Each structure stands twice: as C-alpha cells, then as structure tokens.
Amino acid sequence: MTRNLIHLLRPNGYFSLMAWVLAALLFINRLSSMVKLFMALYLRQELGLAIETVGWLLSAYGAGLLVGSMLGGLLSDHVRTARLTAGLFFVSVFVLILLGLVTQVPLLAGLLLLSGTLDGAIRTLHQRLIMEYCEPAQRSRAQALSRVARNLGMAAAGVAGGVLAQMDFRWVFFVSAAMTLLALLWFVRTTWHREVLEPDEVTEAGTGTPLRDAAFLWLLGAAVLLGMAFDTVYSTLGNYLRDYYHLSTEAIGWQFGLNAMLVVALQIPLTHWGERWGLRRQLLAGCVLLAVGLGMLPFGSGLFYVCLSTVIWTLGEAFFMPPMNVLVMRHAQGGKSGQYFGLFFMSWSASALLSPVLSGQLYGRFGGHSVWLASATLALLTLPLICLATRSSTQDKALATSKRTASLS
Question: Is residue 2 part of a domain?
Fold first, then answer.
C-alpha cells in the first residue's frame, strides 16, 4: 500500500507532471472562490439589499458564466491558450478588487457580469489546457486530480472566507484578488513556455456534431435541471442558514468547507465502488441523494441537522459529477470537442443564471423553505432525462471499462 501511495504522489508517477501543475493552478485559483461563496451574504448583510435584488445580481454572474463558457472556447481557436489564460487571470485581479469597493447596484451588476464571463472562460480553458499539455492516456487522470484540487481549494476558501467575513467582508475580495495574482504567477512560471502536444485525432465513435447527437442533447437538458437544483447551495444556502437556522458566517463557511473536504476524502473511493453499478445508476443515485439532502432542510433544526444535510447532498454530488463529465468527454472524443465542451458548460452555466433569480423570487414570496422543496423537485425531474441520455447500454459499458482502466486499482 505504501508503494502505491508513493507512486500516486510522485510526479510523473500515476499522474503526469503537467497534471500536478494544472491541478496546483486550479487549487490556487479556487482559493479565490470565497467571493462566490459569500457574495449573496455580502450583498444581503453588508449592503442591505433585498433578497430579490440579490437574486438578480447573482444572475448577472450566471449570465457571464454562460457567455464566458463558449467565448473561452471560441477565442482559444485564435489565441494561444496559455496567453489567453494568463490575460484572463490578470483582468480578474482588478475585477475582484473593484467588487470589494463598489456599492452601487448597477456597477455591481456590471462587475458581476464581467467576473462571471472571466470565470466561465477560465473554466473552459482549463479543460483545453489538459488536452494540450497531457498525453491522451493521462487526461482522465488529470481530470480526477483537478477535481480533488478544486475541492481542496473550495474547502480552504470556505473556512478562510468565513473567518475573513467575520472581520470585514471586504477582506474576502482583497485576499481573493491576491490568490488570483498568485495563480497567474504560478501559471507563467510553470506553463507559459511549454510546448503544446499534438491535437487529438478524431475517433470514429459518435456523430461528430453535438446538435445531432440525441443522447448528448438529453444530457444537456439534465445538466440544466440538475445544475439549477445544485446551484441553490451557492446562491441561497448562506442566507437561509442565517435566517432560519441562525448560524454565524463562520459556521456557514464550515458547511462549504465540510462539503469540499468530503469530496476530497470520498470521491475516489466512491467512484471506484460505484463502477460496478454503471454510469446510469451512479447518476440516478446522485440525483436522489441531492434531492434528499436539500429537501430535508425545511424539516429540521440545529447545526448537527445542517451537517447531516450537507453530508447527504455532498454524497449526491460525488456520485453524479464524475459520470456526467465522463459522458461529455466520451461524446467530445467522437467529434468537435470544443463545441461539445462549450455547449455542456453553457448548459451547466445556465443554471447559475436561472437558479439565483428563481430561488430569490421563491425566497421572497413564499419563504426560504420553498427553495429547497423546489430544488429537490428539480433533482428528481432529472431522472428521466438521465435515463434517456444513458439508454445505450453499449456506451455505458464502454465508459465503465475506460474508467476502470484509469482507476487506482
């Protein structure tokens, strides 16, 4: 076991050197996500905005994600990915600083729109960086390592953001800007001068055109509904726990930290254990667990109950997120990968546009409990779409086989 652990952690061992480099980049960059985690609380508590206004402002960020997800892919066809990524990091530093200084609602809306566009483009470009700097056999492993790094960064951001918000909310923005600057310096130092690998060859599997791929279109529909259900964690949970559970900002931050730490600890074992189920069952189980974890919030009280809810919906996330990404990669390998990734991230980002508005209106008109009942319903409505997206047993078997090949065992 010790030998396997050494092989796992050694550069150019189980994971390639560039997989570690890009995972470290993502970890540093995710430290700045404390702004996203506490933005709703900042707008409501510090600036005193109405919950409906908060929802509309957060939807501006979601609109930016929607645009940036596709825009990043399109621009990367004309500008070197490394150069484009560095430029986006540089602009993000100043946007984060301005978000901590500006208080006028119209200016905040514009900055959140720009911030979402930058984040959406960077997320898409990270996928392309993996494709350009990692060998084909290493790409699935690099994806797994990046997911662990992403959640480690989220765990640290949740805890640090809660502590900083207790002192002064503006420190959340300024420290996030410093972390983005550090990510830029790391990226320039480690990746800027590296040569990209040859582009992937197009495989014979799949239709090659996403809009003619019926199974992929069902997957996009599932991504929108599931994303809307899941995004309420970021857009509404903080205010809800403060209003209904009377938790401090530090305790709320620990909920986000608990979520991320559970993903880091359990993601690989759960994925390995779930392989025997097949992709469809993993996705269905994840949706049901998400529905239960969020839908139980109106029916309890106390910190322990909140933690139990967090554990359950985190298990759901750990079950549905990797199989969904694997399905997208499978479709992308059969055709125009940029279009597949761009459309998928646009669909997922659409949830960040729609969810804050809908949840804000529900919260303001019918109370906070209605948000979680609606989220649970959306997660359950995803089930038939997933069945349609994974109805090909041949595809499911092929994907399960490819995951076993890349697993630690």
Answer: no
Q: Which of 118, 122, 3, 143 is nearest to 63 (CA)?
A: 118
Length, in residues, of the chain: 409
Evaluate whether residue 105 is within a structural domain: yes
Task: Tell me the two tokens of residue 198.
Answer: 């040859």
Q: Which tops the pLDDT comparison, 1 or 57? A: 57
Cα separation, 153 vs 146, in Å, equals: 10
| Average pLDDT, integer, range 174-198 | 87
At 196-253, the pLDDT tens digits run 775 544 444 445 677 778 888 999 999 999 999 998 888 888 889 988 998 888 888 8
| Separation of alpha carbons 323 and 285, rounded Å | 11
Give the residue among 66, 62, 73 at the shortest CA–CA distance from 347.
66
Burial of 195 (0-12, 13-18, 19+ CB in 10 A): exposed
Give CA–CA dist 79/82, Å, rounded. 9
Which residue range forms the structural domain that includes residue 46?
Answer: 10-406
Residue 393 has pLDDT above 80, yes or no: no
Residue 237 to residue 353: CA distance in whole angstroms: 16
